[in-house]
UniProtKB/TrEMBL annotation:
Keywords on record: Signal
Protein name: Enamine deaminase RidA (YjgF/YER057c/UK114 family)
UniProt cross-references to InterPro entries, sorted A to Z: RutC-like_sf, YjgF/YER057c/UK114
Gene3D superfamilies in alphabetical order: RutC-like
Signal peptide: 1-18
Family in the record: Belongs to the RutC family.
SUPFAM superfamilies for the chain: YjgF-like (SSF55298)
Pfam families (alphabetical): Ribonuc_L-PSP
Length: 154
């Protein structure tokens, strides 16, 4: 019985699960350094690197809210933050493959699309999800955006 246990353990440990050395937690200096979590995680996938970003809000690198009560300014800052993180990981905005939007007012979706169009390839836009929420973690935060990128290795 002991032999079977070790064999199963060996199979599980070599079954392709990401190991710590394949994962890097990053906090680029171009965005705020958060408390209690990382801004992004890179996952080595062999020929490419997957970059998974935490939800971005309209904080500048010093932690100040940009655009109180101004959804346009908040979305602009959020996409700037996403761009800064993607570039710090060695990619560009064309590498973004998925965006998740959390908005307190989805009637402002055209504002979101207009600003997004300045940052992503609109001919081949990333997959996306839009969710209206009643509130985010602070009353003055109007939008939060998560992003995932797949960055080809050079």
């Amino acid at each position: 019985m002991k032999k079977h246990f070790y064999f199963i353990l060996l199979l599980i440990s070599s079954a392709g699960f990401a190991q710590t050395s394949d994962i890097t937690f990053i906090n680029p200096s171009s965005v705020i350094t958060p408390k209690g979590y990382s801004q992004a995680v890179t996952v080595d996938m062999g020929k490419s690197t997957m970059l998974i970003l935490s939800g971005q809000v309209a904080f500048d690198k010093d932690g100040h809210l940009v655009g109180k009560d101004d959804i346009t300014a908040q979305i602009q800052q959020i996409f700037t933050n996403i761009k800064n993180i993607v570039e710090a990981a060695g990619g560009n905005m064309n590498d973004v493959v998925k965006l998740n939007y959390y908005m307190t007012d989805v009637s402002q979706v055209q504002v979101l699309r207009t600003i997004r169009g300045k940052f992503v390839n609109t001919a081949h836009p990333p997959a996306s999800t839009l969710v209206q929420v009643s509130k985010l973690f602070r009353d003055d935060i109007l939008v939060e955006i998560e992003a995932t990128a797949v960055i080809p290795k050079k």
